Amino acid sequence: MGIRFIKLATIYFLIGIGLGIFMEMAHDHALMGVHAHINLVGWVSMALFGLLYHYFPQLANNKLGKAHFWLHNLSLPLFMLGLGFLLYGNESLLLLVIVGSNVLAISVIVFVVNVFKNLKVDTS
Ligand code: HEM
Ligand code: HEM
């Protein structure tokens, strides 16, 4: 699962900097919030999750780890899509922002619980 997280993270990186370049070229920074979160929650955070899940398999091989993976990867794109519309003044997808951001926050809680519960000091 660590590797899957890292591979998906690189896709967010590509989209994130692509959006940054578009924003520069178009002289339109309206989507800065989407750009910032795609880069930080998509690329940086997911790359970190990937490294953690890879180096500490005890985090990956349990229900909390799997729930975290799916909650994060389902909520973030929906959140970003809704936020993109919202930042351009279109509120028709506001529900995606509300549901997406809350599910993302829940996924963070699941991650924290997983770390505290299953990350143990290796004494071997
Ligand atoms: C080719 C690469 C990139 C380009 C062209 C680019 C472009 C931009 C632009 C145009 C803005 C809006 C600035 C403003 O209106 O004040 C911005 C903001 C931001 N970018 Fe990027 N960016 C790039 C890569 C990244 C990466 C890799 C990250 C994070 C890992 C990142 C994180 C951010 C953040 C956090 C903000 C918001 C800053 C604030 O709150 O003032 N960017 N970027
Ligand atoms: C449930 C998750 C999150 C929600 C609902 C959320 C929401 C927000 C909101 C409402 C803003 C203010 C935007 C504005 O004033 O236009 C913001 C800004 C920001 N957030 Fe988050 N955030 C979340 C997670 C994160 C995480 C995990 C990071 C970093 C790893 C992050 C980094 C930033 C940065 C750098 C800014 C300033 C750039 C900007 O104004 O767009 N956020 N966030």
Automatic annotation (TrEMBL):
InterPro entries: Cyt_c_oxase-like_su1_sf. SUPFAM superfamilies: Cytochrome c oxidase subunit I-like. Gene3D superfamilies: Cytochrome c oxidase-like, subunit I domain (1.20.210.10). Keywords: Membrane, Transmembrane, Transmembrane helix. The chain crosses the membrane at residues 5-23, 35-56, 68-88, 94-116. This is Cytochrome c oxidase. It comes from Pontibacillus marinus BH030004 = DSM 16465.
